[in-house]
From TrEMBL:
Protein name per Swiss-Prot or TrEMBL: SID1 transmembrane family member 1
Recorded family membership: Belongs to the SID1 family.
Location within or outside the cell: Membrane
Membrane-traversing stretches: 238-262, 371-391, 425-443, 471-492, 498-517, 529-548, 554-576, 616-635, 641-662, 674-694, 725-744
Organism: Struthio camelus australis
């Protein structure tokens, strides 16, 4: 048993010019202080304490010397020209050594810090120090220091050594035996003279503070409990669980693909598979449709303008899908028939897919592949600095011991190697594994489609949704990068790197909306350059919102105006299929007259019966939703601006997907079993994932001490917390969401494009 001695001193003198000096000399060190003891706060405020109590550095008996008396010298001095009364009391501590799984209660103040000794049991390699208090303030600091004298137990030096956290109501510090060669350490408790470091208010006036006694005003009751942490076997179980859970998706995909292959080969014999649709080897399957159902669509011969590649005599072999550099995006609209009639076609009342899939398939596919190559470039240039930055953050945490830098859930933060919260990083493996699986599924469809192209002259066929896989590849890469960057963010989550966790979520939501729109508008979808530029603007707004959005009203006014105007501009482009233009006027005021005329004829006169009713309904509902978001942001100014923007993206995506499915069913189209299953799985996964997402376990918008008030224990395998479960479920939800977009229109592979409506 280690003996410890505590020295208590008190002096009635408040004369700061002549303090009483106390010096305690021991065998291995010297400890000194003065009374009144002065603490300095923010803006040079001073706080004086006349009662001081310090624990002397204990001496542990050695086996060689055995039990022996320890000699302590206490010197008291003052330069005052008059007598000063003081009180000195030396006591022996009976409860200096903390025990495992046993709570211990005590009281501390700024001038009376406390520290205790803990020794690792033989069978314990890691422990968690849990400290709780019923009171939020005064602000305190909990430090773990090696057995070295002197012990740093005052406000101005507690951060000089060891690992430390600021505290309001609770703290949890994980300590590993390997970090302490002596297999023991001190747990130090210091009360700060001010509360601003923990989110408290700063005194507005310093009047009288220099002569005020603070002895009884800043005491805090604390309870400390040291419990064993998880064993290494739990790490192994958690890693097996993480990988096997998502590798089961690979097994399920293989089974589905095999069953699908057996069913198709058994049913159709000589049928060839193009994507997921079936076409006979002799002639394309024709869909029987009632006469007149293709009202508004151009004749097949004219709606196939630009298909000079339908036979070998026109240059390239049918099915050649080369990426040769002769075709450029600038060639898209150079074909005379498209240039002459696209304004007429796209403004018809009833549009069919054949009207918006008139461009050369090879060139359009090449256009959408730019999405894939661009997102790889963005990912590399974005990820490398991110990885370098978070490695630096983690190194700073490990070297300085300042655990206020990173906002972990400390009650469920399991270290591994140099990483402080390995569980938060491991839980992101699902995004990477499922993103790669989605790429494999898309690659399989792409290969089967290319083989079908090589087998027959499919350029003469007008069946099903045009197969362009570039956006799907980009979505798969985005899902993998979301896992990588989310893992990087959780290496050290804080105010400076929050955008790492959300940037690719914005891109995923945007790419899904673009893919959904591209399905029936392949010729007029946004280019990769404009799409990624728009995502960059959104990410910039997210950063500005976090920096300025808390208290600055001007930012919310500007952002709301941008939001509303962007919604109106995008709605106009969607409603007119990109053909809305205001002709150049002859005079300066002509543009305003032209705009007023367009507004009157296209909006006011057609309010009772718009030319494109379905599109108008979607855009009205969409604008109401976006305006509601803008008004909500303007009124309430939510603190989590990044999640606010992400909510806007997700709501718009869900609204568009719901509209698409409703219009699909209205058009007498079917939902096959696989997309129907994916829709149900997506809804279930998102509902469960969002439940865990809103279980806030930390918040970098608050001080580290306030954030730790939200910390909670692990809920899965004793290793993963609520946010880790959100990572697992959201990865599965995104994967099923992608499968919905991939398989939603598989029922149309045997339907002619001039019978597929556009909405």
């Amino acid at each position: 048993q280690v003996d410890a001695v505590r020295v208590y001193v008190n002096s009635s003198s408040e004369n700061l010019q002549y303090p009483v000096l106390f010096v305690v000399r021991q065998q291995k060190g010297v400890l000194s202080w003065q009374v009144p003891l002065i603490f300095r706060g923010l803006y040079q405020r001073t706080y004086n304490y006349q009662e001081v109590s310090r624990t002397l550095c204990p001496s542990e008996p050695t086996p060689e010397a055995g039990l022996s008396d320890q000699v302590i010298f206490v010197d008291v001095a003052s330069m005052a020209p008059f007598d000063i009364a003081y009180e000195l009391l030396v006591t022996r501590l009976d409860n200096f050594q903390l025990e495992t799984n046993k709570a211990f209660n005590f009281t501390a103040s700024p001038s009376q810090p406390q520290y205790f000794l803990y020794k690792f049991p033989q069978d314990v390699d890691s422990v968690i120090i849990k400290v709780v208090s019923d009171a939020v303030y005064p602000c305190s600091v909990v430090s773990v220091q090696d057995i070295v004298c002197p012990v740093y137990d005052l406000d101005h030096n507690v951060e000089f050594n060891g690992v430390y956290q600021s505290m309001t109501k609770q703290v949890a510090i994980t300590v590993q035996k390997k970090d302490f060669p002596g297999e023991q350490f001190f747990v130090v408790f210091v009360i700060k003279p001010e509360d601003y470091a923990c989110g408290g208010s700063v005194p507005s006036s310093i009047s009288g503070s220099s002569n005020r006694t603070w002895n009884l005003q800043r005491t805090k009751n604390l309870q400390v409990t040291i419990v064993p942490s998880i064993k290494k076997s739990v790490y192994v179980q958690a890693m097996f669980f993480s990988f096997l859970s998502f590798l089961s998706f690979y097994l399920g995909s293989v089974i589905v693909a095999f069953v699908h292959y057996i069913r198709l080969t058994g049913s159709y014999g000589s049928a060839s598979i193009a994507g997921s649709g079936i076409m006979t080897s002799s002639h394309p399957i024709t869909a029987s449709t009632p006469e007149g159902s293709s009202y508004g669509a151009i004749d097949e011969s004219s709606s196939s303008g630009g298909r000079q590649l339908s036979s070998p005599e026109h240059g390239l072999q049918a099915g050649s899908d080369t990426d040769s550099s002769v075709e450029e995006e600038s060639d898209f609209d150079t074909m005379p028939e498209i240039e002459s009639d696209k304004n007429v076609i796209r403004t018809k009342v009833f549009l069919y897919l054949s009207d918006l899939s008139r461009k050369d398939r090879r060139i359009v596919s090449k256009k959408y592949k730019i999405y894939f190559w661009n997102i790889i470039t963005i990912a590399v240039f974005y990820a490398l600095p991110v990885i370098q930055l978070v490695i630096t953050y983690q190194t700073v945490v490990n070297v300085t011991g300042n655990q206020d830098i990173c906002y972990y859930n400390f009650l469920c933060a399991h270290p591994l190697g140099v990483l402080s919260a390995f569980n938060n990083i491991l839980s992101n493996v699902g995004h990477m594994l499922l993103g790669f699986l989605f790429l494999l599924i898309v690659l399989r469809r792409d290969i089967l489609h290319r083989r079908a192209m090589e087998m027959k002259d499919i350029y003469t066929l007008d069946y099903g949704i045009p197969k362009h896989f570039g956006l799907f590849y980009a979505m798969g890469i985005a899902l993998m990068m979301e896992g990588v960057l989310s893992a990087c963010y959780h290496v050290c989550p804080n105010y400076s790197n929050f955008q790492f966790d959300t940037s690719f979520m914005y891109m995923i939501a945007g790419l899904c909306m673009l893919k959904l729109y591209q399905t029936r508008h392949p010729d007029i979808n946004a280019s990769a350059y404009s799409a990624y530029a728009s995502f960059a603007v959104v990410i910039c707004l997210a950063v500005l919102g976090v920096v300025f959005g808390k208290n600055d009203m001007w930012f919310w006014v500007i952002f709301s105006m941008i939001h509303v105007l962007a919604s109106l501009a995008l709605s106009t482009q969607i409603y007119y299929m990109g053909r809305f233009k205001i002709d150049a006027p002859d005079s300066d005021l002509g543009i305003f007259r032209r705009a007023a005329m367009v507004l009157y004829t296209d909006c006011i006169q057609q309010c009772s019966r718009p030319m494109y009713m379905d599109r108008m309904v979607l855009l009205i509902v969409g604008n109401l939703v976006n305006w509601s978001f803008a008004i909500f942001g303007l009124v309430y100014r939510p603190r989590d601006f990044a999640s606010y923007i992400l909510g806007i993206f997700i709501c718009n995506l869900l609204l568009y997907l719901a509209f698409y499915i409703i219009m699909k069913l209205r058009s007498s189209e079917k939902l096959l079993p696989i997309p129907l299953f994916c829709i149900v799985a997506t809804a279930v996964m998102w509902a469960a994932a969002l439940y865990f997402f809103f279980q806030n376990l930390s918040s970098w918008e608050e001080t580290p001490a306030e954030s730790r008030e939200k910390n909670r224990p692990c809920i899965l395998l004793g290793f993963f917390d609520d946010h880790d479960v959100w990572h697992f479920l959201s990865a599965a939800a995104l994967f099923f969401s992608f499968l919905v977009l991939l398989t939603l229109d598989d029922d149309l592979d045997t339907v002619r494009r001039d019978k597929i409506p556009v909405f």
